[in-house]
Design a protein that fits this description.
The chain is 0% helix and 48% strand. The protein is mainly β. A hairpin with a 4-residue loop joins strand 7 and strand 8 (78-83). It is globular and about 40 Å long. The termini are far apart.
């Protein structure tokens, strides 16, 4: 069983920045593709970003390209989401997810483990 714990959420003004962290338990972190998803009130969960096991390949939703950066530190069993130029429409609960297959996907059902989420609120 893999445990994922997100942190770093909070309240920020539009145009500001936040960095989310996701700490993973277990010894197999480096074999998992990792992803970030988000869910706003009244909306379905949506893909935000994903990163390959070796950290070389990253993918982003069009809505966050150029503003968000996903990265990972396998030595620390941690994945990050740096969020810059935040907009009110970025307000959501952000979830970290791990894909044990190692392939990675923008489809939420491809992921095997999920954190409980961290709230990000961007004010106008």
């Amino acid at each position: 069983q893999v445990q994922l714990v997100e942190s770093g959420g909070g309240l920020v003004q539009a145009g500001g920045s936040l960095r989310l962290s996701c700490a993973a338990s277990g010894r197999a972190f480096s074999t998992y593709a990792m992803g970030w998803f988000r869910q706003a009130p009244g909306k379905e969960r949506e893909f935000v970003a994903r990163i390959a096991t070796n950290g070389r390949n990253t993918y982003y939703a069009d809505s966050v390209k150029g503003r968000f950066t996903i990265s990972r530190d396998n030595a620390k069993d941690t994945v990050y989401l740096q969020m810059n130029s935040l907009k009110p429409e970025d307000t959501a609960v952000y979830y970290c997810a791990a894909d044990a297959s190692g392939y990675g996907s923008a489809w939420s059902l491809a992921y095997d483990y999920w954190g409980h989420g961290t709230q990000v609120t961007v004010s106008s």
